[in-house]
């Protein structure tokens, strides 16, 4: 039976033992009340809601999907009711400003919540998934009037929100978008244009929807510097209630590989009433507040999928009896077959999943904590440092965690064998649902370019060196213990990364395409370095606390070793690819990619 | 628009220029008539059938699926008609013995046919996909009487065939199967039991179905040594027609992640009439004839999926305009955006796909040719050598090609961005359909164990060394040309593999689980070594023939370099993992996998 157990023990390990999150949080004035007890209480309640309310709706949502008729959308049975429970429990307000009705708890706890929601029901989680980003964006950029009118409804979850970015000709490249906004005398605008791929663009869950729409003002500059952000409600608020319906219509839903329960809508704006958020032509910057939060959230979706896939494949591997293990304990020698978890091939697939899931959980919560500090720390330098670190970690989180959501689900499916391919088993839905996360909120290819070009090379590696310095400090600290070999490996990796960044920066002068060619490798190199850093710290903590629970902490140390012995070697591959590209460039014969196809775009030869 | 162009130019390159297949085949007495013209004529006709008849049915089959009602199965609209055309054109008989109505053409041509069928419609191809294996199995093991009665109908494709192996408790481990066969006085048996996951177990395409069923005779030894193979027709033949319906009933169809058009049936045998094929209790050996053919065919399915995914993502990348390229030719500088194929991130995804697809095509056709030689060569030593090589190549083909069918489809989907996740685009079906091939006909994990334990370690590396010797000869031959660096890299890799095999064999004495732990790495090491061997040869041929078509042959040489620079580095990762495992074992502290979970199976401590 497919199921979900909230991984509270590991969450406690990460938050309390590894990161000492409560101590950090309670030093921030806003979160002075936060302690371990509160943290774990929230985690337990979130786990209960996710596993008891959302998980049972997951297969239903996949099977029934959303229905579209005459502009109206019906979400799968149970989705709206689950949302009502979510709202009544106050979850939307968790990490929001008390001035607008929020509970004023840290982002860190919101991350714990969203990991579990995503683990249980990716499609459902899409509906409230943009709430916090919309909240953050409006909180920072909207006028006080707009805030007063909309924020309390968003914070309470009474109204859901969308991000209306994509148009059919403008996906990764928002500079190409064509939706227009015409200012009116009353300070509002009229929005006209078509948007696609709008998650929750229409639904029957909340009575109103707040669309955040990118569009162009008249005479705006071409490209991404001419985009502004607008707030466009489905119904115009009137007094405390709703006034007339705005001119935004849902024209259809997409049929998708996965997340069938999420209403992926096409929207038509036809002189819809809206209001500018932030500065004219600075819409991308305003939206980026939302997008960065969304990228962390999407990474956490990947973690959530990977966790459920891992849990279930581990349980199945203990139930399913096939073949005799290579080494059999005496008491099993009469049995016709052993649980497949006894076969090293299955153990490898399981340990791979575990090492990534637990490694990513450390990274995710560390980053959420960094976000809390970046937002709330009294010391401006600390805020800036945390911002700088998040700038590096965000593309890694978005890309590597969503990759693992998908590949981890695929590894889990493999453990189920033929049964994994059957719908009713449950795992194949995770594979289909998780696939989208590698694409939306900036494809994983764009994340790699973002990391190497905009986050590393753009400041000559300063932010990166600061992070690597912390990694090296840990490596030195652990350099004499039982993890000595691994600590040395980590220090070497950090050095190799510094070296390649310098060489890539130098080579890019003559060959501007070169950094783009090796961006995927550099993302995984830095990502593995960071995860290896956490595993080294986790092993140290586990060693220290081993007496409390020898089995758990021994497994933690073994998983750290597994990560170093079986997963980190991927970095040798990436280093060699980077070196091959650098060598070819140095020899003056860079490899032309798709030479036959690219001829059509080449300069005509004279 | 999703589409398919038969890759005839590359097929000709591989068969005619790289492998000189006609020359090899025409030296075999059976295939004396085969020449390049005949070969390409067959390829062209196969490509026409696949692209014109099958490809248009692919999305329909996915959408409509198979329907089950009261024991009867309705396949998707058009499937039965397409099969009639397939049969009338004589395709089932292509590589069969003329004594039973076959056309007597080589397996090599059958592989070309099945690559294209799989490219166009994986689900449909499942129906005739087992014909050739069933033919080969019966041809080798059945009594002359059974052959006379059944083979002509199978060869002509009038009746389709199934492999009835899996039971709910017996998947990878057929030794656990429970279906019983009770001998009758007339020499027949009565079969009773339940089978699941039977592809084409029931359908409305052919009037009769020939089931090849694994079952146990009374008093058979336990486990896999007590399994016999039986032929069980859906209708009992009578004279030239059909007699009464046999007691085999379809009890349902599975709902699956993909290949919706393939009827994955549960079958109930209830004292069904059958006949023994081959020796009692030697059913697995007889079935293995079918299974080895099926594993090559499944590998080719992966190649077929990967080819279509590659073609379409390449076409889309040239159509879709997003962002400005890092380097822009003068004539594009006024354009708001460039085709995404100009972005290195997309080029990497495309070159990866291309290097694998073209590399695997060389491996697939080489192996099909080896199969023809193994079957038909007059010299027994050549036959034995070819058999030995196929024993090594089969698990590599099955595993690496099906991995790429799936991961390649995923890379292609990524190029489509959000549009790739939408059903009507077409690519997501390839991802879903191709996933099963990593599981059926022996999971890819089982292939790895098969290669390392049964094919390499079992004969102390003899077969492997013979293959590596050929690789090294090519490396030496190309060692002074422009591929010198790559030739040296290939020779080094071959040496490293020999060395690791020796060390694994030595370490396995004390630690029998060790080879199982590193089997996945060893499979990909040997696999990459073989593909790199082909790429070295392909580059040499392309260089020689460059004057004929400079663009095509330059691209071929570039792709060879891409393979060496960007893909082969994966082997450094695998070598390091193997080394880590060997080192831990040598230090007497092998890493326990899942130590916490495995405690329950450990010997009780005294």
UniProtKB/TrEMBL annotation, chains A, B:
It is an enzyme of class 1 (oxidoreductase). Residues 41-158 form the Acyl-CoA dehydrogenase/oxidase N-terminal domain. Keywords: FAD, Flavoprotein, Oxidoreductase. It catalyses: 3-(methylsulfanyl)propanoyl-CoA + oxidized [electron-transfer flavoprotein] + H(+) = 3-(methylsulfanyl)acryloyl-CoA + reduced [electron-transfer flavoprotein]. One of its GO terms (molecular function) is oxidoreductase activity, acting on the CH-CH group of donors. Belongs to the acyl-CoA dehydrogenase family. Involved in the assimilation of dimethylsulphoniopropionate (DMSP), an important compound in the fixation of carbon in marine phytoplankton, by mediating the conversion of 3-(methylthio)propanoyl-CoA (MMPA-CoA) to 3-(methylthio)acryloyl-CoA (MTA-CoA). This is 3-methylmercaptopropionyl-CoA dehydrogenase. It comes from Pusillimonas noertemannii.
